[in-house]
Amino acid sequence: MPFKLRAKIFKHFVVFGLLATLNFIPFLSKAQALSTSKPQPNSAYLFVYFTGNDKSEEAIRFAISADGYHYRALNNNNPVIKSTGISATGGVRDPHILRGANGKTFYMVATDMVSANGWDSNRGMVLLKSTNLIQWTSSKINIPQAFPQFAGVNRVWAPQTIYDAKAGKYMVYFSMRAGNEPDKIYYAYANQDFTALETVPQQLFFNPSGGACIDGDIVQKDGQYHLFFKTENNGAGIKIAVSKELTSGYVLQDKYVQQTTDPVEGSGVFKLNDGTGYILMYDLYTKGRYQFTHTADLKTFKVIDGEISMNFHPRHGTVMPITTREAETLLQKWMPASDVVKTVQAQGLKPINIVLDTNTNKLYLPFLPGTNLKSVKLKFMQMPGISIKPSTAVDFTKGGVRLQVTIAGHKPVKYQLIAVKNHNPVLAGYYADPEILYAEKTHQFYIYPTSDGFTGWSGTYFKAFSSADLVNWKDEGVILDLAKNVSWAKRNAWAPCIIEKKINGAYKYFYYFCAAQKIGVAVADNPSGPFTDLGHPLIDKLLEGVSGGQQIDPDVFTDPQTGKSYLYWGNGYMAGAELNDDMVSLKPGTTTIMTPNNNFREGVYVFYRKGTYYFTWSEDDTRSENYQVHYGTATSPLGKINVPSANLVIAKNKAEGIYGTGHNSVLQIPGTDEWYLVYHRFNYPNGITMGEAAGYNREVCIDKMEFNADGSIIPVKPTHKGIMPVRVNANK
Q1: How large is the average pLDDT for residues 196-209?
Q2: Is residue 727 part of a domain?
């Protein structure tokens, strides 16, 4: 975890956590001939969004979906319109798109803002217009300049557009603030060309409870207008006000409709094409992800996050239904064959580790151990105007498989698909900080990781995985959920460790974990839980003499020489203490500062071999490709750590594209001198391209660890191949 986290979370957080698995369903049936004499039914969806608080991320991006649940970024998730060409500030946020009343024209509005200039820095918006979703004309609107009576305005946020049938005009509504007054929602009418606002902004709605009122979104249903908006007073969240008139008379329905206790903003509602209701989505900006809910009546909402997938990280955006022809136009312009082929799914496939060699058009498909490659049914995200052959099951046992992707208007592209059975990563999905245990009770191996893939290390639950051979792993599910099982902290579930102890003839499992930069302990009778939290943190403050760092990354160790158990922890410093026999408290007077050198960062792990106590730890930063493991030795569990000049355990393998190798645990096969290093790395192959986000999109690997005759550790070379199955002789 990072050395220091910012205590202040910005209103708009950076980049959403990647979902661990893309679960696309067929996109659309084969495109049919469309008549131009009448409007065509909507059959797909266009998602417009921006991605974060960096200036390069404050731009309009597009994604597409068949069903409103499964989305794929267009243009490789790059902007479809350059912000510098349309905005006054050089960036745009919060884009909203609307189909015009004639069914053929599209209107888009966005906040003209660069967050780096401050949240009170913007004065206007951008208006855009298109007839084909590809080419857009644009205009910049500066509210104080256009309307001098609003000279004191310092925020103009999240504009949206709706057609006012009575006025025969397009109404733009947005939140606005002057000085330190609460934000209110205003509206004004655009001119006929949609290049300016031709009426003075009028107040549409304010928060009757006090505080700000932002991010308005109006949905018309059953002759009424439903205004979704965000409050920013006590209990901030999303509420609805309803009126029979578009521009007045809104009555507050005084309840929050978001289905989470996390902070939210940027609600967007769209109607499903199949008539099954509406989707309300909103930005969980401190989590870096969206939440999707379904509603039939705009009154009750059910979370459907498990049904949603996307290969990008959106921030405040909107979804608009589109026709098959419009979907074809977008796909032909902004989805290359290389993106289509990477939507492949198959039983046993690890989708986040697919590698496409664009020089040779070879697609390497990593399969889980034990997958039957004789008859593999490949599934692709089906899209209008796109065909993929073959469409039948394929046989990888005879070598590579030929595939052809044809996009209407483009030449066919041929690929060779190659099945790969590497064992790293060992867990399918994003996980980090792995702790490994061999349980005497079950004669199984277990990995206890941080659940990763959440922006800013914002995961809130822990899982466990079991295996009989270190290669084939079973997901045991969530074993501890901060929201449900821990009363003293609800955020940042990080870096657990565990130990098996036999107490009064029965096995007990003591699980030490981080939450909100504190260390807690939970206890269970079985290695896969259920675990019961102690009810308060075990460690929640810095030690005397330590001026910085965090109380994270615990490690628990039982000395085979004495049977005594010890707990170690620290980020920026390293501490150790003996545990009392209850295993849930520290023995007074034993806490020791043990920082081995100036390069120590975090992630200590302790093990014993042939009379020597080994201490491993991570150096650099988990966001860095140079994150790596080093070691030292001691003659006792709390003794001085001696650091040899050659002390590297593992570092990146640039030739293999393996980066960010760190935060390890160590496994000794019982009864042998056979050792394995369990560690995390950046996701392969995408992590190295993700910038700092690579530091929370990590995966777990295992490689063999060996020693020289003098007991020094031979540096471990990280591999994709991993290890072969290992079994323990339980009779020894």
Answers
A1: 95
A2: no
